[in-house]
């Protein structure tokens, strides 16, 4: 059953289960909604890098921090389509285009729509992450063929103000709602390892699991260390089992959502990634680069999945979740 009325007390109790019980519960739900041997793949491209007016304390692309990232203009459509063709050839199912903006300017909308329709015409699923959107912008991107929009809440409602001051959690939730109402699938998750408490991590998932509808996909990022950003001062490494517990809790609270093991995989052992897949993670980013940081090499991921007897999901496998409801 899909529930949107989870309480913090319930989530805390699940999170605190003995590890074998937690994993059993997560794995049982995973199997009820998905093929547990299947992993979705998405490829990322930064279509506009750096110089961002927002002050997110974890991010290499904020103009407020000295991180050494060089700001670029919005890429040309043809360059983006060439990268999408390479991603398709490398086996990606979805192509996610990210821009370091607070929100897109209306003058950029034509080009963004051309990118979406061009990527869709290649037979790839389309995803964008461009900052806040108005309902009109959602409608235009949807018409161009946008399948998913990524917009993370990043952390708990309580901790959010420690992480960014130029926007609020409510701003984020408003865009997520506009995306959902506009009929574009929502990809919304957060980051672990920014100095938040266990309670913050649980509250982040409860916030997602009590939205009017669960996000279609939930990225769980480990903070990728960036020199020169404020989060560096209070970041703490995440205990590997704490990560697995959060993945399992995401699977249990939002059983039909795709859970993506996102940033931070370069620092994870194969064994930890395998445990995350057992706990219910069923999507990864593929390709050597995320936006400004590294991702495991394609051969490493192919080797990992082969050794686990797992495979890349056929496109549309997530539809199993809908069928199971
Ligand atoms: N500017 C848009 C926005 O913030 O919505 C889109 C791009 S932004 C880089 C997308 C997401 O990447 C952020 O919401 C955050 O969750 C994640 N992210 C950014 N920097 C990260 C880092 N160093 N480690 C892990 N995740 C990160
Ligand atoms: C998400 O949750 N993780 C991706 C995607 N959505 C856009 C981004 C990760 C960025 C990691 C830091 C970087 O490469 O700059
Ligand atoms: Fe800008 Fe997005 Fe980075 Fe925040 S997370 S500084 S909005 S690119």
Features:
disordered C terminus; binds 6-(5-methyl-2-OXO-imidazolidin-4-yl)-hexanoic acid; binds iron/sulfur cluster; TIM Barrel; single chain; 325 residues; binds S-adenosylmethionine; ten-stranded parallel beta sheet; 10 strands; alpha/beta
Kindly report the name of the CATH homologous superfamily.
Aldolase class I
**How many domains?**
1
Specify the CATH architecture.
Alpha-Beta Barrel
Major sheet: size, sense and barrel closure?
10 strands, parallel
Summarize model confidence as the mean pLDDT: 95
CATH topology: TIM Barrel
**Proportion in β-strands:** 5-15%
Termini separation comes to 8 Å
Low-confidence stretches: 316-325
Instruction: Determine Rg (CA atoms, Å).
Output: 18 Å
Describe the structure.
This protein has helices spanning about 10-15, 20-35, 75-90, 110-120, 135-145, 160-165, 170-180, 200-210, 240-255, 270-280, 300-305, 320-325, and strands at about 40-50, 95-100, 125-130, 150, 185, 190, 215-220, 260, 285, 310. It is an alpha/beta fold and about 325 residues long. It has a single domain, classed as Aldolase class I (TIM Barrel, Alpha-Beta Barrel), CATH 3.20.20.70. Strands 1, 2, 3, 4, 5, 6, 7, 8, 9 and 10 form a ten-stranded parallel beta sheet that branches. Strand 2, helix 4 (about 110-120) and strand 3 (about 125-130) form a beta-alpha-beta unit. Helix 8 runs parallel beside helix 9 (about 240-255). It is globular. It starts with 7 loop residues before the first helix and ends with a helix.
């Amino acid at each position: 059953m899909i529930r949107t009325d989870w309480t913090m007390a319930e989530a805390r109790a699940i999170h605190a289960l003995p590890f074998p019980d937690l994993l059993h519960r997560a794995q049982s739900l995973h199997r009820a909604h998905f093929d547990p041997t299947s992993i979705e793949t998405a490829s990322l491209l930064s279509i506009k890098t750096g110089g961002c007016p927002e002050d997110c304390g974890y991010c290499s692309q904020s103009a407020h921090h000295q991180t050494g990232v060089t700001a670029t203009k919005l890429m040309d459509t043809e360059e983006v389509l060439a990268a999408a063709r390479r991603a398709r050839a490398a086996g990606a199912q979805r192509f996610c285009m990210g821009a370091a903006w607070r929100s897109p300017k209306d003058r950029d909308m034509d080009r963004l729509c051309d990118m979406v329709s061009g990527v869709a015409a290649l037979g790839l699923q389309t995803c964008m992450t461009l900052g806040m959107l108005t309902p009109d912008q959602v409608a235009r991107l949807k018409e161009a063929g946008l399948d998913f929009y990524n917009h993370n809440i990043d952390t708990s409602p309580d901790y959010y103000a420690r992480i960014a001051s130029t926007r609020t959690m409510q701003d984020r939730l408003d865009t997520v709602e506009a995306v959902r109402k506009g009929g574009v699938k929502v990809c919304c998750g957060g980051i672990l390892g920014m100095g938040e408490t266990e309670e913050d991590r649980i509250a982040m998932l409860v916030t997602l699991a009590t939205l009017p509808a669960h996000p279609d996909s939930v990225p769980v990022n480990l903070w990728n260390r960036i020199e020169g950003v404020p989060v560096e001062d209070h970041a703490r490494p995440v205990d590997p089992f704490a990560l697995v517990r959060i993945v399992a809790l995401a699977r249990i609270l939002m059983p039909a959502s795709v859970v993506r093991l996102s940033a931070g995989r370069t620092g994870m052992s194969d064994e930890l990634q395998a445990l995350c897949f057992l706990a219910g993670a069923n999507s990864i980013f593929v390709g050597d680069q995320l936006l400004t940081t590294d991702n495991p090499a394609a051969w490493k991921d192919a080797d990992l999945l082969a050794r686990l007897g797992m495979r890349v999901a056929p496109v549309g496998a997530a539809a199993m979740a809908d069928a199971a409801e």
